[in-house]
Design a protein that fits this description.
The chain is α+β, with helices and mostly antiparallel strands and 261 residues long. The chain has helices at 8-22, 27-34, 38-50, 66-84, 86-96, 138-146, 149-158, 172-185, 222-225, 229-246, and strands at 54-56, 62-64, 99-106, 109-116, 131-133, 188-191, 198-206, 212-221. It folds into two domains: 8-64, Winged helix-like DNA-binding domain superfamily/Winged helix DNA-binding domain (Arc Repressor Mutant, subunit A); 71-246, GAF domain (Beta-Lactamase), CATH 3.30.450.40. It contains ten helices and eight strands. It starts with 7 loop residues before the first helix and ends in a 15-residue tail after the last helix.
Length: 261
């Protein structure tokens, strides 16, 4: 196929599809399959390698990389969750009258895959596909709080705790304490830690194996939400719990009820 007329995105997607079909390819293989010059192929693979979308084996074969694996995992998780979550998220938006979002882990961030805008005239709007840091948002902290101790510690070691506002938690110890409180009560809160205009509450979603697969949040203007977190938080937790049960999750403390009679 001739390379003319195709943009970088088209060429990148074609390369991904080719590597997915072949399992690996050399640079000359890619040149021939994609109809590109050696210099053009080198520019393309160098960019994709920098972002870990592809990696090169010691033998010189190009293969799909860890960034593709993370995207695939996030996509698989979001599709299953999105089969059951929207109806309950719409109810949550009606209950709280604020904007509701659902996100999945992608690398070291949460990416939004669903949103339900609040009915109020002034609301917080999040674009689908937007990414948010784990440590400075309720949806990110909710995800972290749902992990087991080992998984959480491993992920926290990889994070850089950037200050997005003066309220952002940048101390690892303070963040761990905040996450412990979130795990205990079932929901996380964020008070103007990512954006000074908003306050949010979030909760994790678990699948049938007990693994965190997503998290949800309710976000509203800080002037309105600051006094509502103790009301909104439990509603978010209840909704996340209902979605988790629909995915087959059984909380560890759930005991079988004795049969009547």
């Amino acid at each position: 196929m001739a390379a003319s007329g195709r943009g970088s995105l088209d060429r990148g997607l074609e390369l991904f599809n080719y590597l997915a079909q072949t399992g690996g390819a050399s640079t000359p293989d890619l040149m021939q399959a994609m109809g590109m010059s050696r210099s053009a192929i080198y520019r393309l693979v160098e960019r994709l390698q920098d972002e870990q979308y592809i990696v090169q084996s010691p033998g010189g074969q190009w293969r799909l990389g860890p960034s593709i694996a993370r995207l695939a995992m996030a996509a698989a998780q979001s599709v299953e969750v999105l089969d059951v979550a929207p109806e309950m998220l719409r109810t949550l938006a009606q209950q709280t009258r604020e904007s509701v979002s659902l996100g999945v882990l992608s690398g070291h961030e949460i990416v939004f895959v669903y949103r339900e805008l609040g009915p109020q005239s002034v609301s917080v709007s999040t674009q689908l596909g937007a990414r948010r840091p784990l440590h400075a948002t309720s949806i990110g902290k909710a995800y972290l709080s749902g992990l087991d101790d080992r998984e959480r510690a491993g992920l926290l070691r990889q994070l850089t705790l950037y200050a997005h506002t003066a309220n952002t938690i940048t101390s690892r110890q303070e963040l761990e304490e905040d996450l412990a409180r979130s795990a205990e009560r079932g929901w996380a809160e964020e008070h103007q830690e990512f954006d000074l205009s908003s306050t949010c509450c979030g909760a994790p979603i678990f699948d049938h194996t007990g693994q965190v697969v997503a998290s949800i949040s309710v976000a509203g203007p800080a002037s309105r939400m600051q006094a509502q977190t103790e009301i909104v938080g439990p509603l978010v937790a209840a909704t996340a719990s209902a979605i988790s049960r629909r995915l087959g999750y059984e909380p560890p403390n759930t005991q079988p009820q004795p049969a009547a009679g």
